[in-house]
Specification:
The protein is an alpha/beta fold and 247 residues long. The protein has helices at 13-26, 46-56, 71-85, 104-114, 155-161, 174-184, 212-227, 231-239, and strands at 3-9, 32-38, 61-65, 90-94, 98-100, 118-121, 124-125, 133-136, 139-142, 145-146, 150-154, 188-191, 197-199.
Length: 247
């Protein structure tokens, strides 16, 4: 199964360099390629760093620079578009602030090969995290979601889901939203729970220099407006899944 590991980044080449080293060390040679999406970085060392890895890596590396900053979702969407242009069958969305200490790749391939009709995440949040609820007429609905720092699915599932909603901008709620879309379309969200993946947290958002609270509140309202009228359909689909035990 031809697979693309999609890594977006904005500056902080040190993080991406380390992720490439970990992939070099832990991901077996085979049908894997890497798609680097440069989200309009300004740091001077990136071009030389990319060129070095393209000459060193045992996995093919495709590099694309966004002409303007598109944020997390837009960069991931571009990465998927490029991967599918070159006939990738499996897409792995790997944030550059996720440390890999072992062969997460084979675990991912094995799980999706057994059940291709899933949206895979490293960590599934099925409880009220403070982010993923909508309250209508005093009744709270929890939207289970896969943390966006590591997601994977087949190209076919990605096409049907339609990618990340660009209305959510640079960050926040795009992973909850894409998870809600997957559930609404009848896909299960499955947790990899890999011992080899660890999210640093905050390393990439801090590079944006934005007021996160304003972005979070704006996107919370957008999420509620988008999904509040679809809650009955979401609940119906969730009743058919045991979200806590999916794997």
């Amino acid at each position: 199964m031809k697979t693309s590991i999609i890594i977006p980044f904005l500056n902080r080449w040190d993080l991406t360099h380390q992720r490439l080293f970990e992939i070099y060390k832990h991901v077996p040679v085979g049908n894997a390629e890497i798609v680097l999406i440069d989200d309009a970085s300004t740091d001077a060392d990136i071009q030389s760093g990319v060129a070095w890895w393209q000459g060193t890596s045992k996995h093919p590396i495709r590099y694309y620079r966004n002409p303007e900053n598109l944020g997390f979702g837009g960069s991931m969407n571009n990465g998927a578009k490029i991967a599918m242009k070159y006939q990738s069958e499996l897409l792995i969305f790997h944030s550059n602030d996720v440390i890999a200490s072992g062969d997460f790749f084979t675990e991912t391939i094995d799980l999706i090969s057994r059940n291709p009709n899933v949206l895979l995440t490293s960590e599934l949040i099925w409880w009220d995290s403070g982010w993923n609820t909508i309250t209508v007429d005093g009744k709270k609905t929890i939207f289970p979601y896969g943390n966006g720092w590591y997601l994977a699915c087949t190209s076919e599932v990605w096409k049907n889901i339609g990618g990340f909603d660009l209305n959510f901008g640079a960050y926040d709620y795009e992973d909850i939203d894409i998870s809600a879309t997957a559930i609404y379309l009848g896909y299960n969200i499955v947790a990899l729970n890999s011992k080899y993946l660890r999210h640093i947290g905050g390393a990439t958002i801090s590079a944006l220099g934005m007021d996160r609270s304003l972005q979070t509140n704006k996107n919370r309202l957008l999420f509620e407006q988008k999904w509040r009228d679809k809650i009955p359909e979401i609940q119906s689909r969730l009743e058919k899944q045991n979200v806590r035990d999916q794997r």
